[in-house]
Amino acid sequence: MRTAQLADSAWIDTAIKLGNSLGAIAAFLAILLVVFLAAGLAAGRFQRPLAVLVFLGPAIVLLIVGLVAPLIRTVYLSFYNADSTRFIGGKNYGWALTTDSIHQVLLNTALWLVIAPLAATALGLVLALLVERMKHQAVYKSLIFMPMAVSLVGAGIIWKFVYEARDSSQQQVGLLSQLAVSLGWQHPPNWILSHPLNNFLLMAVMVWVQTGFAMVVLSAAIKAIPDEVTEAARLDGARGLKLFWFVTVPMIRTTLVVVLTTVMITTLKAFDIIRTMTGGNFGTQVLANEMYSQSFEQYNIGRGSTLAVILFLAVLPLVAYNIVQLRKERGTR
Amino acid sequence: MTRKPRPAPFRRRLLAVPAVLALVLAAACSNSSSGSKGGGQAAGPLTGDCSKYQAYAGHSGTKVTMYASILSPESDSLEKSWAEFSTCTGIKISYEGSNDFESQLQVRVTGGNAPDFAIIPQPGLLAQMVKSGKAVKPPAQTVANEDKWNPVWKTYGSVNGTFYAAPMSANMKSLVWYSPKAFQQAGYQVPQTWADLMALSDRIAKAGSGKPWCGGIGSGTATGWPATDWLEEAVLGSYGGDVYDQWVGHQVKFSDPKIIAAMQTVAGWMQNPAWVNGGIGDVKSIATTTFQDAGTPILTGKCWMLQQASFYQAQWPKDTKIGPDGDVFAFHLPAVNPAVTNPVEGGGEFLTAFSGRPEVQAVQNYLSSSDWASSRVKVSTGWVSANQGVDKSLYTDPIDKLSAEALTDPAATFRFDASDLMPAAVGAAQEWKSLTAWFAQGQAIPKVAADIDAAWPQ
Amino acid sequence: MSDTAVSSAGPTRPAQPAARPGAEAVRRSFSSPLASVFVIAVTVLWTIPTFGLLATSLRPKEAVATTGWWEMFVHPDLILSNYHTVLFEGSFGVSGGLMPYLVNSLAISVPATVFPLVLASMAAYALAWVRFKGSDTVFFVIFALQVVPLQMALIPLLQLFSGGAHLGGATILPAFDLSGTYVPVWLAHTMFALPLATFLLHNFISQLPRDLMEAAVVDGASHFRIFWSIVLPLCTPALASFAIFQFLWVWNDLLVALTFAGGNPDVAPMTARLAQLSGSFGGRWELLTAGAFLSLIVPLVVFFSLQRYFVRGLLAGSVKG
To answer: Out of A220, A223, A253, whose CB is closest to C321?
Structure first.
């Protein structure tokens, strides 16, 4: 009786929660529809400005509130002290550039920024090419893509288990250690402690997550190369690697750049892997994590903001490069 | 804004009625959760079993939120301990535990979304919260309850002389876990002095059946905290309370020869390759072993001793017999310097309010009373209050008894966990990191000390 | 999260038939037994960790603590009780297992996918087809906003949600009592998703055939009509592939959930609960892995059931360059 009631209330609870969420979507779409209909009535010279306002307005407002304002605030706070009460000029930046532990953080971030995206994209490209000729390619693609569905926290948990090391006198429970032992390495190291190797082991997790994404997108791009192009190149005698390097790669360059950029941005922001697996210890700290730690664990908002600005500046060239590319494209269209 | 009518049973739960504006998605919300579990005695005096809660009555249908780092299963006991209070008074206590507590509390408090209560284990963090101006002073009744506590506990709950947070639990850190059975079989005696302890460790190491010590300092983002305890034991046991207090206040720096010497004591003990890490690995493996897992080898005889606090009791498997003649038990860690009498390092948790609403104050009054402390003690073992109003006979568990006696012993040199007292930037961040690097990468002691000193807020 | 899937897409071309001489040439150049072995090896390597997670979650506590999961091939001793414990047992969680959190995750993820999708496609349409002075600049600024670390936006947003917005004493936006509802989480996710979504959908929408749009204008259709009845239907594949990525991102997010929903069982998602559990995981690996695997199932189902649209969205694309 009691359990039945409990189960009942749990179902009601579920129904309410999902109902609220679907109701929100319905209300959202309904309001949009009403606004559209109302705005659609406007005629003449008001139509264009009104359209811009209605279409672009919501996104712009949300972006200003959610991203632009916090960005300005962060830059402002980076010139203030720990609790934002005193202006201290560039002291925080001086601290960031002269502290040993921050040097390590910057170096690690740079390594992550270069290696993880390149590895994931390169591997994804190779797989995209190779998987095409295989039977049941959907199976391979799906399995390789699967880690994308795992949260970075989950990925951290999974791989922490893979890297688990026990004393050589005991049975290993970590896959990597067991593999090493089976291959005749009597005393495998404690992986997660072995600096600088541990950085690369952590990057492997990111590559594991992102490769499937790169593969799927690049595979679609390769498939979409017009036949005439490859056919013409083939008639010119291009074969194998040459064909790949001088025809395929240039044809999908834009996609390659976009994939690289997105993986890089994900890499820079992702702090879950490191937080779950090492907590930033053992020389594996990166900027995104250190920034969080400075701001919210050491209560130094000034230093945390400074690191955020540095992070922002670090990705800016990447974005600038993308924008230049886009401009070129737009110019030629 | 649309407001959808719903059938009656739906109404008692949270209803977010979404109403979406074109520019900013904003929603009104009729948060009509009445949450009271059948405690319909809103008006009039409480009767029967509920009559003892009369002093807290008059807030039926209200809800307070509580945020802490205590996770299940310990948090389940906590919730049970106030279940009756909640039912009788109609005040619902919505508890949330998080292992990101320290950083998330900061985010929420600065973001203006503070919980009604936070259970803060670090006086250093409490000071930070008071500094933010969001912590609220307790009502008179809570302050009056503090007479039940040893006066020193009141100072830990105070910031700049003003009392803010009532202590809840207390734990005893100066314990060494061991297996009485194994000791008996091998003919080892529980050591009474530091010299005895060192001699015993040496003897076990030479006997060759397992290493004398095991340890683990892994604890997610708080990795390193057990190592701070080892250092604190060494400082308190070597120099006594005065130097310890000066160290907490940074009059004695980490790079002071005294603290360096204490670090060397720790290095000779927990970084001695012949002595650690029993059943787990080498010295470095201490850094990757979680503190929860560290004691497991004691049960298999691969390790003999583990220095951990009284709350480690919860980590032993369910069927482990804990007691002076059981599978595991704990002895009091002796002072490094015999001249220091009976050093006891302890920790605790402090109930901090961020709201002055009447129902919040009612809960605060109740949770600072000996009634609640007794209720919590009765729910399950592994929890000790330093509240002297709690009847000592309620403690049924040998470890709880041991801890309660040590914590209320007037002859002891009692001190609170130093890293919890230090500013959060040091005690909850840099010290953890640097000591972890000391264990994991074998960093030199002077560098470790200098790094920690450098993080001390100006 | 990386959602470039639709970037290479454009609806102008129909999907190509599978066997084409050109692609065939590249394909053949790379075909060799060695290549197959390589692909299979990578696939196995990529699957093993997740498989290990599943295997661990099916083993009894003692076995997990003492031996590796591959021992299950030698001693197959599999149980389902870990899942039962995680899902329904009160002793594991404060209020009865992971079930309410699973529901919360769904209730958060669906609107947090739809809102940015709709708003971003609107913005993308305006930027691509209702050109105005400065529309290029606006587009580039939106693109650049991708790099703002969202950790820095947490406190200002919380302040806004809990205290409203004020400018010099004047209240611009009153404080809504949103705590305990999903609204702050939806809003935060929408804000953080907009730059990438706008960028990607713009790439797609701007490549819609010009003649189609012009014909509609000649017919006297308003922008709203064009958007509703031409752009949105044509964009379905791109919208679907972005939806998959956004859903995965929201479902797997921890930081936003932790900050704006907290661990309150009324609103907190699976990830927040799992993180709490992983904090106390001394010896509870078998439960943690079961929970982690449960949180995997929904995104996998979503991905595999929408996969068709996803691939179509990509294949419909033409190559730029």
So the answer is: A253
